[in-house]
Amino acid sequence: MGTTDVGDESLIAAVRNGDAKAVAALLEAGADPDAVDGDGTPVLHLAVDAFDLTVVELLMSSARLDSVSADGRTPLLRAIDRGAYDITAALIGGGAQLWHKDAEGRDALALARYWHETGAVAELRRRSGMSESVGSRTVQGEFGGSCAELSLGGLTVRTGHTAILTELEPKYGIRPSFDELMSRALAEPDHDHAVWWATTSVLQQRHDPAVRAAAAALRHRPDPLERYFGAQVLRLNLFDESKDAPFDGLLADLFLPWVAREPDPRVTWILVAGLSDAMDPRAEESLPAFTRHPDGRIRQLAVSGLRSAVGAGNPEALAAVLARTRDEDAAVRQAACAALALAPAHSAAPADALAGCLADGDERVRVTAAAQLALRDDPRGEEILRGLEPADEGSPYYWLLDEVCRHRQGGSDGRL
To answer: What are phi and psi of 9, to 5 degrees?
Structure first.
């Protein structure tokens, strides 16, 4: 057996083991990205079957995206069949073709629609011939949203099929109604599911006043999930990064009276997220009150949304953030430390509050406080920072410490 064959065997083993570093090294050394195993299955297909997005992306750079395995499927059709929403998105983004068909004559859209209409549990039972209960666990996707991973009789799929269908339809010129898309989202009670991301994203891309009107009308519905859907669609549809920010006023007009009477914290979180993004003075003025909300996630979001106001020297915003450095929730305390990054250098209160967090019981809070002090050229957090060096890119503090390093080398953005 030649050297190349040995390299290919090593690549197949690395892909099966999910060893991304080995895969990258072997590809760099000349291993064939289209190597096939003993069953004629290319390594890209093996990575898809393993739901290994990292390895899929490594192979995509040089493998044939539309290679056909022994069962007649391309990697894309395989990913759709598996319900792998993030891998499907990566393959399509990389140029995988939609027109290939499986053994039953189904192209990408038809296959996704089949799973959507049949249901993952029903199809698993049909394929396995088993009626036992289906194993399930929640997995987080890379491109937004989570989904369930279902297993039965040695078969495993993820419940991303409806999200995949929703993302594919516009590529075929299909435009489902607002109500149809909402019904797909509401079929999944977990609003972190990928289908919520897909449906609201598709509606955002329409930039249609009728979509905004339909979403706004949901604010009066008794079902909190319907209100959540409407708020999320509006938040995405009205988000505007342009200098003139023509939609920010409309978002504030809708969200301010809505959030004042909204009883569900999940919906409130979305509304506060929209207000945090909106470049409207009324939206910013509403945030200090939400730093005292009973729900920690909402307090954290409101604190983060006050960064610009703190940087502008707004005394109410600064007081609200300083108070949260003593919050009961560590995530809120960390957000407060981060929000003090832009506080004016002449004020002693932010630095003293950060110094007070150096003895916090949560490491994330201590490190964030120490880094912000370093960015203010305050040496009180030096001992904590020295204990973290060196930090590689796998460290949760890598970018924070990199910012400190660049500041010390004269690469500061001049904010202090």
So the answer is: -60, -40
Contacts of residue 319, defined as CB under 8 A and 6 or more positions apart, other chains included, come to 288
What is the band of 207 on the pLDDT scale with cuts at 50, 70, 90?
confident
Torsion sign over Cα 99, 103, 104, 109: negative
CA distances from 155 to 129, 146, 378 (A): 11, 20, 57
Residue 74 inside a domain? The answer is yes
Task: From 87, 123, 92, select the one nearest 109 (Cα to Cα).
Answer: 92
Determine phi and psi for 149, rounding to 5 degrees. Answer: -110, 120
Count the domains in the chain. Answer: 2
Interatomic CA distance for residues 247 and 240, integer angstroms: 6
Q: Is residue 231 part of a domain?
A: no
CA distance 398 to 392: 6
> Per residue in 258-304, pLDDT tens?
999 999 999 999 999 999 988 889 999 999 999 999 999 999 999 99
Pairing of strands 146-152, 135-140: antiparallel
Q: Which amino acid is at 138?
A: T
Rounded to two decimals, the pTM is: 0.86
d(CA 366, CA 385): 9
* CATH code of residue 402: 1.25.10.10
In single-letter form, the type of residue at position 182 comes to: M
User: Where is average pLDDT lowest: 124-128, 246-250, 408-412?
Assistant: 408-412
Residue 283 lies in a domain: no
Instruction: State the average pLDDT for the chain.
Output: 91
CATH of the domain at 11: 1.25.40.20
The three-class DSSP label of residue 95 is coil
Q: Which amino acid belongs to residue 310?
A: V
Q: What is the pLDDT of residues 139-189, one digit of tens each?
A: 988 766 899 999 999 999 999 999 999 999 999 999 999 999 999 999 999
Domain containing 157 equals: 3-166
* Cβ 270 vs Cβ 238: under 8 Å: no
